[in-house]
Amino acid sequence: GSCWEQALQLMRDMPGSQVTPDLIAWNAAMTACAKARKWEQALWIFDQGMKPVRPDLFSFNTALHSLDSDRWQMALEIFGALTSLQPDTVTLNTLLQMVPEPTSALRLFREMQEASVQCNDRSYSALMATQPWEEALMLFDEGKAEGIALTTHLYGTALQACSVGRHWQLAVALEQEMRGASLRLNNKVCAAAINSCVVPFDSGQGELWTRALTFFRDLTEAGERPDGVTYIALLSAFASCSRWEK
C-alpha cells in the first residue's frame, strides 16, 4: 500500500502489540495523510484517533495543511478550536493560502497580528493575493514599513497587483527596487510587469510596447529563460499597442 495507508495500519496494529501510540506517532501518521492530500483520514486522526492524547500546535497545523482551498471554511473551524494554544506563522500562512474571500482573509490577518503572531513575506504575499489590487499594494507598503524581508516572491505578488491595475509606472519602480536590493528577476515577476503594459486600444499609450520589451530584455539579461507565460504577456502587450511587426 501507499505510505499513508501503511501509516494508518501501523497505528491500528500498535495496540495489539501492547504499544500505546503517543503524540509523536499520531502526528507522524497524520503528516503522511496530509502529504498525500488524504484530508478525511488526516481529520479522522485529528478528531478521533488521537483522542487519548492532547494535540499540539503541530497537530493543528498538519490538520490545516491536509485541506485544499475548497475547504477553507472547514479550516477556519479547526482554527477556531485552537483555544489553548498560540498559533504561529505556519498557522497563519497555511490559512491565508486557503482563504479566498478578501474580508475573511484580512480579518484573520489582523487578528493574528493582534495576537502577536509573527508575519513574514509569505504572510503578506498570501494576503495580498486575496485583495483588490489597490489594497494589495497598500499591504505591500505596510509590510515594507514593518521591516519584513523583501523577497522576489513578495515583489512578484506586488507586480501582479500592478498588472491587474495596469499600473506600469509603479511596475517600473518596483523592478528598479528589486535591482537595487540585488533580488533576482524571474518569469513570474517579469510576466506581471509586462502585463501592466497591456492597455486598451484607445488609451493613448501606444508606445508602452517599448516598456514591455524592456521588461522582457531585463529577464533575459538576468540569465533567465522566458517561459510561455512571459511570451504570451509580451505578445499581449504588443497587440494592445498595435505593434505586432516588432
What does this protein structure show overall?
The chain is mainly alpha-helical and 246 residues long. The protein is built from 14 helices and no strands. Helix 4 runs parallel beside helix 6 and helix 12 runs parallel beside helix 14.
> What is the molecular shape?
elongated
- Major beta sheet summary: none
> Care to count the β-strands?
0
Q: Secondary-structure element order, as H and E?
A: HHHHHHHHHHHHHH
- Average of pLDDT: 91
- Sheet-strand content, in percent, reads under 5%
Q: Low-confidence runs (pLDDT<50, min 5 residues)? A: none
Number of helices: 14
Give the terminus-to-terminus CA distance.
Answer: 56 Å
- Could you estimate the helical fraction of the residues in percent? 55-70%
Rg over CA atoms: 23 Å
How would you classify the helix and strand content by structural class?
Answer: mainly alpha
Q: What distinguishing features does this structure have?
A:
246 residues; elongated
Provide a short characterization of the protein structure:
The chain has 246 residues and is mainly α. It contains 14 helices and no strands.
SSE diagram, text form:
Elements: H1 3-13, H2 23-35, H3 39-49, H4 57-65, H5 72-80, H6 89-96, H7 102-114, H8 121-128, H9 133-146, H10 152-165, H11 168-180, H12 187-195, H13 208-221, H14 228-240
Helix pairs in contact: 1-2, 2-3, 2-4, 3-4, 4-6, 6-8, 8-9, 8-10, 9-10, 10-11, 10-12, 11-12, 12-13, 12-14, 13-14
